[in-house]
Structure formats: C-alpha cells, structure tokens
Inverse folding.
C-alpha cells in the first residue's frame, strides 16, 4: 500500500515511468483521423463545420453512448424470450471397500463409477405483471435521450466552431487595423520630423511621435499574436491539430438581418425543439416506466422451467461392468408471489415516485431556463445587430477626425496630441466595430442554438 500512495503530504507523487509510457502508447493509438481535404482552397465556415462534425471527438463519444443505450434496449427486450442452455457433467469415481466376514476372512470390493450427463434446460418467464414492459419502455426512453444528446453534441460543435471562426475573423480584422495604425504612426513621425526641420516643431513632438510608434509596434505584435491564438482555438474546436497548416478563409460576410418573428411565438415554437426540453420529457417518461416496474414487483410472476438429461454412466465392481443408462426429464410451472422482503419493494416504490416528482420539477425548471435563454439570445441578437451600425458610424467619424487632424498637423495648424488621440480613437473604433460584427454573427448562431433549430 505504501508504494501506491504519496509518501508525504507536502511533496508531489512521483508518476511511474510505466504510466507515462502507457499514456504515450494510448495517445499514439488515437491520432487525429484527418480525412482528405482540399488544401489548395481556403476553408470557409461551412467547410470547417463539415470537418468538425467528422473529426471532433465529442460527437464520436456521443455517438458511442447512443449506441450503448440502443444495445440496452435489446438487452431489456431479451427478457421476453426463453433462456435456453446446455451443460455437460463428466466424472469418474472409485472406492475400495474392505469387508471382514466371520469365518471367511477379509475381502476387498473395487467399485468404479463413470458418468457422462449432457443436459439441456430452459427457463421462460410467461407473466410478470408488466415488469418487462416497464424495463423496455425505460430503456427506450433512455436511448432516445442519448440520441437527443448526440444531436446536442453536434449542435454544440457547430456553435463552438461558429463562435471561434468569427473570433478569428475579428482578430484578423483587428490585426489589420493595428497594422494600419502602425503605418499611420510612421507617417505621423515623419510629419513631426518634417515640422522640426522646418522650425515649426520641436524635439518633444518628435519624441512623442517616436513613443506612439513604439506603442503601435507593440499593439501590432499583440494583435498578430491574438490572431494566431484565435486560429489555433478554431482548429482545436474543429478537431484538427492547432499547428495544422489548414488554410482558413475569413473574408467579408453579410451582416445578419433583424429578427421579424414575435418573441412570444418564437419561444412557443422553440420549446418543443430544444434538446434539453426533449431530454427532460424523455427523462420523465423513463421515470414513470421505472415506477411501473417498481409496482410490478408487488405482483406475482408465472414461468416455466424444463430440463432434459441423459446419463451415459456405468458401474464396475471388481472388473465386472454394468451400464446404467438413464434419461431424466423435468417440466415445472412456477409461481412466485412476493410476501415479505424487509420493506425493500416499498422503498423502491417510494423512491420511484420521488424520481417521478423530481423529473416533473426538473422539466418545469428546464422550461424556465429555456425561456430565459431564448429571450436573452433574442434580445442579444437585436442589440448586437444595432451595435454594428453604431460601431460603423463611430469608425467613419473617427476616420474623418484622424484624417483631418493629421492633415492639419502637416500644414502646421494642429498639434501632435490631437493627432495621436485621433489615431488612437480610430484604432479603438475599428477594433470595437470588428468585435461588434463578430458578436452579431455569433448572436445569430446562439439564437439558433437556444431555439433548437441549429441547422
């Protein structure tokens, strides 16, 4: 035991080398399966979603879980059929018995018995007051719930890829804005030096322009790094290695249109399509089936038991063999009537009733959460679409201000702090607009996800 537990509470446990070797073997055996892709053409969002649905391990896990649940239905249905089996018993026994006979002395009798007994038996439950039917209904509801979970895993994958894709688009746009700001900082520095040479400026303005250029270079470096990180996050959500050279197209996309459907109608239609609502309904049905199974334990069960055996054995006494073949058959009608088991059935029935009540409460809670999530997504989409217009207006106004202040500074009218402030304002506005556009696209995906209509 000492070798299996940490030796001290203040030092880390030494991981065995064998475990790391096993981990290496396991990781090597589960390399990412990369299907044939057209690497000569950049992948847009639909192509990335298609890859994710084939490569993301979460969807594969959900699929296997659904298959396990389907097999459980088969296992429950098997209880309707007779259970048939065969057995074989073979053996040999020997006994030496010595008898002391008065006047005759002692004698030994050698008994050797052999037996070969093949047996076929069958057991069939004919009636169980609905217990098997309840078990099958329970298994079916759980299987359907796993299928809904499989669909949910796909929808979550699509949502994750969509979100990461638009985050990458925003990061690349912000990197372009940072590069433009860097170019503007170089032009501002050139203008400051020109004003100094003309006697209109001084070394302070040049130093300020050089400081602004250094800051712009740092901002550009960070923006490019964030774009690379966003690309790695997108590839990870797709199921591709983050360092893969897969080309990704992030060109302009049309902005989403405003929602025209009324909110109350949207909520009403969406509730019956949400996976969590469907799973809660199936869970309630499953618990009711389990409750029926608990009630069936109070009722009698009727079955049939039958067996057929053939004994091909014999007996040898002092070398004289006697064959003793025999055929045994048995057929019984069984009746099981529960009488007392220490309150176990009553406990199970009470627990099943509590599970049903809990499932009903869970369905109500899920409905409340779903309605809140749909309303939040609906309002979030409306706000995000309106924010894009405001952000684009801000960019246009900031660009006009930046161009005007720089032009005035070159002509010797303006001052450098105003130019730098205007350039920073333009960069901030472009970054806000880029994030607003990404938020608008993501809000559409979130609303589709929350309404259960993510296609």
């Amino acid at each position: 035991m000492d070798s299996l537990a940490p030796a001290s509470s203040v030092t880390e446990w030494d991981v065995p080398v064998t475990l790391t070797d096993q981990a290496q073997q396991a990781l090597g055996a589960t390399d990412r399966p990369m299907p044939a892709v057209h690497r000569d053409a950049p992948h847009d969002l639909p192509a990335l979603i298609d890859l994710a649905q084939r490569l993301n391990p979460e969807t594969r896990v959900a699929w296997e879980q659904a298959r396990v649940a389907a097999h459980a239905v088969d296992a429950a249905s098997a209880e309707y059929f007779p259970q048939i089996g065969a057995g074989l018993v073979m053996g040999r026994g020997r006994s030496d018995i010595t008898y002391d006979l008065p006047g005759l002395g002692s004698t030994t009798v050698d008994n050797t018995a052999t037996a070969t007994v093949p047996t076929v038996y069958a057991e069939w439950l004919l009636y169980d007051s609905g217990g098997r039917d309840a078990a099958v209904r329970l298994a079916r509801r759980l299987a359907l719930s796993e299928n809904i979970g499989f669909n949910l895993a796909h929808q979550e994958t699509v949502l994750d890829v969509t979100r990461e894709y638009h985050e990458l688009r925003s990061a690349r746009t912000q990197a372009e804005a940072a590069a433009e700001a860097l170019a503007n900082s170089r032009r501002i520095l050139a203008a400051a030096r020109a004003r100094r040479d003309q006697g209109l400026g001084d070394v302070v303005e040049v130093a300020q322009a050089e400081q602004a250029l250094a800051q712009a270079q740092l901002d550009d470096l960070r923006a490019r790094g964030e774009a690379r990180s966003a690309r790695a996050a997108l590839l990870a959500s797709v199921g591709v290695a983050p360092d893969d050279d897969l080309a990704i197209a992030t060109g302009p996309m049309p902005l989403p249109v405003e929602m025209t459907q009324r909110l109350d109608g949207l909520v009403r239609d969406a509730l019956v399509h949400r996976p969590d609502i469907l799973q809660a309904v199936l869970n309630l049905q499953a618990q009711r089936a389990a409750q029926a199974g608990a009630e069936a334990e109070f009722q009698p069960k009727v079955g049939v038991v039958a067996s057929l055996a053939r004994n091909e054995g014999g007996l040898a006494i002092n070398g004289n063999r006697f064959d003793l073949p025999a055929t045994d058959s048995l057929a019984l009608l069984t009746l099981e009537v529960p009488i007392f088991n220490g309150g176990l059935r009553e406990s199970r029935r009470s627990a099943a009733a509590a599970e049903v009540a809990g499932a009903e409460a869970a369905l109500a809670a899920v409905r409340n959460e779903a309605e809140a999530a749909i309303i939040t997504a609906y309002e979030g989409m409306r706000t995000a679409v309106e924010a894009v217009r405001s952000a684009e207006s801000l960019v246009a106004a900031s660009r006009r201000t930046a161009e005007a202040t720089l032009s005035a500074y070159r002509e010797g009218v303006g001052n450098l702090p105003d130019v730098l402030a205007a350039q920073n304002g333009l960069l901030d506005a472009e970054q806000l607009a880029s994030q607003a556009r990404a938020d608008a696209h993501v809000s559409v995906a979130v609303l589709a996800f929350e309404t259960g209509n993510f296609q």
In short: The chain has a mean pLDDT of 88. Residues 275 and 316 are 74 Å apart (CA to CA). The first helix runs from residue 17 to 29.
